[in-house]
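FAQ: What does the model actually see?

It sees only this:
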Amino acid sequence: MTPVTADVIVTQVESLLSRHRSAPVTVAGWQRLEPYAIGRARLEGGERLIVKWMRPHPGAARHATSQRLRNEVAALRFLSDDLTSGLAPRVIAADLDAELVVLEDLAPRTALDGLLRAEGATAHADRLAAFARVRGELNAATAGRSGLYGVRRRALGPAGDAERFAGFREEGRRQAALLGAPIEGGAERELAAALEELEHPGPFLALSNGDPEANNVLVHATGDPDARLIDFEFAGRTHALHDAVCLHVPGPGWVSVDAAFAGGYRRALVAGVPEAEDDRRYGFGLAAACFSYVLVRLERVARVDARPPGDGSRVQLVATLEAAARTADEHRSLPRLAGWARRVAGLLRRRWPDADLDLDDRAAFPPYTPRRR
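And it is asked to produce this:
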């Protein structure tokens, strides 16, 4: 494989855009956006574009890398060309064989997670509200129409296995059993019902970018946040409420979140999924998605256990379990799974005394406290 250097990428971009526009195109400026396989190109004339190229994830096969690019191109074209949604950047040009895509540049918007880390959640309440709202808008716009995405995606080649988390969930169950908290009895029956709901979402079937976290939404740092979604490499049709989990349960980068913004997600979702107004149905789907996520995160127990005391991954895992249980309680759903999650959290608190902290202490853990490694 040709080494991926700046000169190689720039040459590929110039060739791709020249073919696409049937006229010579010259890249006059280039900036690599570390640590990602992304760069910002400035063309002669001043036009600015974003360039993404594929590089394998650790342990990923080459075909899986290629599929991620196809997911992104299909999803973004679906959103811009089929739905004219304005929720995400437009694809300007793509070379699937070269594993390269050129996108609309959404600057001066910036990633929300960087703002939260630098200035805290209180300073960016409007941007967090926009984050919640745009996730609901994506699900609402695509609910009942995500088959169009499937048509676009199949036109670009086989999509592979859409359920990439099943193995993680099984490993999460195994790790819980090893801790002394197997999922059994009423909790096991609730889990079966939850997974059935997620597998057959009915009117909640919608498109997700597959990574609904604050690093994948761009907002204006001041004024109207005007949020846009990015990173559709893992895009696919799924239960919409998977996209709401990040508003209730801390994602990989956080120890805490603020569920106060989740109402904005739900209101936006109702515009395309009226069934989301039903408290029982919404609460059940949300709790199901939260516990599915918990099992995926529990897969990491053995690795986190091997880390030194004080590693932020430990308290983050405890926070994840307790936040999922709290969400289920608030929505009066899946009580036995909520009890199981609290039991696992208690076992981890005893196993890791360094993680036995008061997570309700908002002075120590304000909303969007970063997980420190």
